[in-house]
Design goal:
Layout lengths: L2 H14 L23 H15 L7 E4 L6 H18 L4 E7 H4 L2 H11 L11 H15 L2 E7 L1 H8 L2 H8 L8 E7 L10 H7 L2 E4 L5 H15 L9 H10 L5 H18 L6 H21 L3 H13 L6 E2 H15 L6 H14 L2 E7 L5 E7 L3 H9 L5 H10 L3 H4 L1
Parallel strand pairs: 1-4, 1-5, 2-3, 3-4
Antiparallel strand pairs: 6-8, 7-8
Bound molecules: adenosine-5'-diphosphate (ADP) and magnesium ion (MG).
Adenosine-5'-diphosphate binds next to helix 3, helix 10 and helix 12.
Amino acid sequence: MNNEKNIEEYMDNLLSRKSIFKNKSALNPDFIPDYLPHRDKEIRELVEIITPFVLGNKGSNVLLYGKTGTGKTACVRFILKALSNKAKSHGFNFSFSFSNCRMDGSEYRVLVSLGSQLGLKLPFTGLATAEVLQRIVSFLQKAEVRCIFVLDEVDCLIKSSGDDLLYELTRINENLKVPLGIITISNDISFKEHLDPRVLSSLSEEELIFKPYTSSQLTDILQSRSSLAFNEGVLDKGVIPLCAALAASEHGDARRALSLLRVAGEVAERKGLHIVDEECVRTAIKRIEEDQSIELIRTLPLQSKIILLAILASSKDGTKATSGEIFSSYKNITSFMGVEALTYRRFSMLINELEISGLIEGKVISQGRYGRTRFIRVASPQDLVTRGLSEDLLLHDIMDKLSLLNLPLESNL
Ligand code: ADP
Ligand code: MG
């Protein structure tokens, strides 16, 4: 057998394989389907509430809330798309702007995002927030456009910046002939406590609650999405009900159900199977959990990564380490890296944060007459933690050195 023949055979195999997916993007979280099962009532109510704005009249601002994956963003996007098309066919000057406050991240970026979608040219930095707001107001005054602003995941904005911007936005109408509508969406209901009562009453002239989906509702949702995403006959009978049941056992999150289904399809594809079976779903759960842990590690600040590395190195081969021992490994690593070491107090605070995130765990063990000692070790599988940490180039040299010599940390340095 030569290489060329190998490759040829491999290619033939790939090409003859019936593909699992027809259109994988139909399972993406930002895909908006033409039909959203089990949200007829919410969609109808929302259309009733916001249609006056499309007609150029004063409607009610509306606040939507419910846990993640209950279809809030999808329903609002779906409705605004439909209303825009309708408005266009009637020749109405209607426009909407959408900001995901978590992704936009600051008051300034939220405003730039809203304004840019109106067609305004706004720099990404450099202006005062008040100036950007003023430009948006002037535009709305002049253009006399019928407009709706959507502030999605608004709880994140309030956590980071308070409710000043929301206050300003609720006052815009005082200066406009054509009323502006505001839709706010939150995954977290407690955010209302952090709002000034005037802002709250203005934003929540109407309120809509999105309840978590039940397992059988999730089954319908998955069924309708899977017919767009998968080729016919590739899903084993039990796959959709299993994904639905697993997602419903947490809080009826359609996003989680869809991502389980997507990853299960990818697992089948990678294994070269023609059918997605329940085993693929079980592998998918593990894959998703692993990806979440790696993402968690990837986004840690450098000091926390170094502490995690010190714990990893100290608890290698099942040895137990106290926080004092870990602190000394940590200091060795920082000095090797040329990074300033934190005080023991700050180090302990970061250890606590790592414990809360679930990446590490502490265990108190009785040492007989020496009393009780608290040991700390890595809680996620070690290869995952190693993979997560090794993605940081700053840690490469030290990790190389540690695993190269494969000796306890203290003697390595
Ligand atoms: P939320 O904004 O409440 O966190 P999303 O609207 O982003 O949730 O929904 C998460 C995912 O689930 C998206 O991919 C969305 O298209 C899908 N989804 C939610 N509800 C439905 C539904 N009723 N029918 C079809 N897909 C849905
Ligand atoms: Mg959302």
